[in-house]
């Protein structure tokens, strides 16, 4: 007993001296006396950590942002916003010769060219519509069908995604012009499958009327850029409202 106590004291004293004898600590020099409590952990193969998708990389409020979220509760601000970088898409039929914002125009050219290469030539039937055009269009629908009906298929001025310059409506020269059956056509299916590769999403998908406020529009493609389109595709989150945790917008505030 006595011996082991003496050993313990000596060991303790030696350890104390060893500590005192060490070089004066330099700032930043790691201490080496603490053993790794779980050395086996470091032996496990480490998976490369994917950087988390940065949902704040672009604004959802700025009308010039490629991620702007426009819906029945989120009018563009200012309400008569007009983009500053409009450009006419080249090499694609464009029924009303409407332009798009620069990045969306280039992406639309690439996507429609690829669709044509795949044997499904499509044409643009609507792109950028300015505030004044939407005022006239919406008012004509209200006059014809009444406001309640018009609100189900046409956006009020300042609430139309087409006013962002980031949207194209497409058609395949078939019998489903601006109709739900476009989603069942070969072109509609090809576009739904490949849109994300070009930075577009189907903005008003099936089953999400209560979120987006619009009936399914398989012809309406919104440019959000390839990064966000790929992330939405990968996560299976199909609406901008859900992806960015924004309130559902089934109808107008008043
Ligand atoms: Zn549209």
From TrEMBL:
Residue ranges constituting the D-alanyl-D-alanine carboxypeptidase-like core domain according to the UniProt record: 100-225
Residues covered by region (Disordered): 24-48
Superkingdom, taxonomy of origin: Bacteria
Pfam families: VanY
Record's signal peptide: 1-18
PROSITE patterns: PROKAR_LIPOPROTEIN
Name the UniProt record assigns to this protein: M15 family metallopeptidase
Organism: Leucobacter coleopterorum
């Amino acid at each position: 007993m006595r011996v082991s106590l003496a050993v313990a004291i000596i060991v303790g004293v030696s350890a104390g001296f060893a500590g005192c004898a060490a070089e004066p600590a330099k700032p930043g020099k790691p201490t080496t006396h603490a053993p790794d409590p779980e050395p086996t952990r470091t032996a496990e193969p480490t998976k490369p950590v994917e950087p988390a998708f940065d949902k704040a990389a672009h604004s959802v409020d700025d009308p010039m942002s490629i991620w702007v979220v426009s819906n029945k509760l989120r009018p563009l601000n200012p309400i008569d916003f007009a983009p500053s970088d409009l450009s006419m898409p080249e090499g694609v039929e464009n029924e009303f010769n409407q332009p798009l914002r620069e990045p969306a125009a280039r992406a639309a050219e690439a996507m429609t060219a690829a669709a044509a290469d795949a044997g499904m030539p499509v044409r643009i039937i609507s792109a950028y519509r300015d505030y004044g055009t939407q005022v006239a269009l919406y008012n004509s629908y209200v006059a014809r069908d009444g406001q309640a009906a018009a609100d189900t298929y046409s956006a009020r001025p300042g609430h139309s995604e087409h006013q962002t310059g980031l949207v194209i409506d497409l058609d395949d020269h078939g019998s489903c012009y601006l109709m739900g059956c476009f989603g069942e056509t070969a072109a509609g299916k090809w576009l739904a499958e490949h849109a994300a590769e070009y930075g577009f999403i189907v903005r008003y998908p099936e089953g999400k009327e209560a979120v987006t406020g619009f009936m399914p529009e398989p012809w309406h493609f919104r440019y959000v850029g390839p990064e966000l389109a790929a992330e939405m595709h990968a996560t299976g989150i199909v609406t901008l409202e859900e992806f960015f945790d924004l309130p559902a917008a089934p109808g107008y505030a008043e």
